[in-house]
From TrEMBL:
Record GO terms (molecular function): DNA binding
One Pfam family hit: HxlR
Listed Gene3D superfamilies: Winged helix-like DNA-binding domain superfamily/Winged helix DNA-binding domain
Domain HTH hxlR-type: 14-112
Keywords: DNA-binding, Transcription, Transcription regulation
SUPFAM superfamilies assigned: Winged helix' DNA-binding domain
The name this protein goes by in its record: Helix-turn-helix transcriptional regulator
Amino acid sequence: MIQNYIENANFEDTGFAYTLSLISGKHKMVILYCLMEFETVRFNELKRYLKTISDKTLSTNLKELEADKLIVRTEYPQIPPKVEYTLSERGKTLMTVLDQLCVWGEENRLIE
């Protein structure tokens, strides 16, 4: 019976797979966590927080998070341009999950 279930199951159709698709990659969870901690953050502040990320990679990640409606990008019409990023309401609902990942990591870190 379980063999039949496994053969017919499709991991890509699960909520787990969908969530992973939203936060996958090296930087997305860190970006979201930064926005949770500091609320409103500008591009260069994110770059300093992430340290080794390139402008292109950060820009791509922010665009993807915005397209997935996890963050809000606010552009102010001034010179020089000012852009701020915040968590969307949808993004805030994901923070409970990310926070639990942090708690688990702290409680289960293997000390060498």
